[in-house]
C-alpha cells in the first residue's frame, strides 16, 4: 500500500494574527459527515494553547489526509493538551428535517456551546454562523491551512467513525464500520437489499431514489429512535453573552460562506 502524500503542515498564522489583534481564545471549527448517506453530521471546536509549539503540531493535517491510526494518535493528544474541546452531533432525522447545510451549522454551534471556555473568536472551515454572536471568519480550505481547524477535523472524524462502528453493531449488514455511511458501491448494494436503516438520511437523493425504485409507496419509516442518547436539543445560543471585540479592530459584516453539500445529496 502506498503511503499517503501529506500536504503542507497547517500553521498557526491565522491564530497568531488574531492574537496580535487582541483575541485571547481562538476556536477552530470543522465538521465531518456532510456527504454521507447515513449517520450524523459531527462538528468539533478546538482551542489550542497559544503561544505554544508542541512537538506533535507538525504531525497534524486535515483528517482526510491521515489514516485511522494517525487520527486516533492525534485525537488523544489534542483531547489531552487543548485548552478546550467541544463536540456537536446532529442526527439523520434532523438532517432530513432542516437540510444538510443548516444541520452542519447547528452541529458547529452546538460544538461551540459545549466548549468549557468561551472563545473570543471563531475560525471555521468554509462557512460562517450568522446566528452566533461571537466574532468569526470562514476560511476556504481552512482544514488544510489552519492548525486549530485541522485539529477540529480530527476530533470530529474520530468521534463520528467511532459512532458508525457502534451503529454497525446495532444495525448489522450495511457495513457501516467499513464505509462509515458514505455512498460506496457495497453500501448501495446493501441498501438495495435491506432497505434503509433508522440512521439513513431518507431524503438524500441516492437513498430517496433507490427507495423509490423499490416501491411506489412512501419511504420506509426508518427514523424511529436511533439517536435517543445523542443531542437533539434546540439550536444552542453559541454562548449567550456576545464576545467583546478588541477596540483596535474595525467592525465589518461577516461574509456568509456558501458551503452547500455535494451535488445530488439534497
Helix-strand blueprint:
Layout: H1 13-20, E1 26-32, E2 41-47, H2 68-81, E3 84-90, H3 92-98, H4 100-113, E4 121-125, E5 136-139, H5 142-145, H6 147-170, H7 176-179, H8 185-194, H9 205-214
Helix pairs in contact: 2-6, 3-4
3D architecture notes:
- The protein has 266 residues and is an alpha/beta fold.
- It folds into two domains: 150 residues, Ribonuclease H-like superfamily/Ribonuclease H (Nucleotidyltransferase, domain 5, 2-Layer Sandwich), CATH 3.30.420; 48 residues, no CATH class.
- Helix content is 36%, strand content 11%.
- It contains nine helices and five strands.
- A five-stranded mixed sheet has the order 3-2-1-4-5.
- Helix 2 packs across helix 6 and helix 3 crosses helix 4.
- The chain starts with 12 loop residues before the first helix and ends in a 52-residue tail after the last helix.
What is this structure, in a nutshell?
With 266 residues, this protein is α/β, with parallel strands linked by helices.
For the sheet with most strands, the description reads: 5 strands, mixed
Strand order of the largest sheet: 3-2-1-4-5
Structural class: alpha/beta
* Count of separate structural domains: 2
CATH structural class of the largest domain = Alpha Beta
- Can you tell me the CATH superfamily of the largest domain? Ribonuclease H-like superfamily/Ribonuclease H
| Tally of contiguous helical segments | 9
The residue ranges in which pLDDT falls below 50 over 5 or more consecutive positions are 224-235, 240-266
Key attributes of the depicted protein:
11% strand, disordered C terminus, 5 strands, 36% helix, Nucleotidyltransferase, domain 5, 5-stranded mixed sheet, alpha/beta, 266 residues, 9 helices
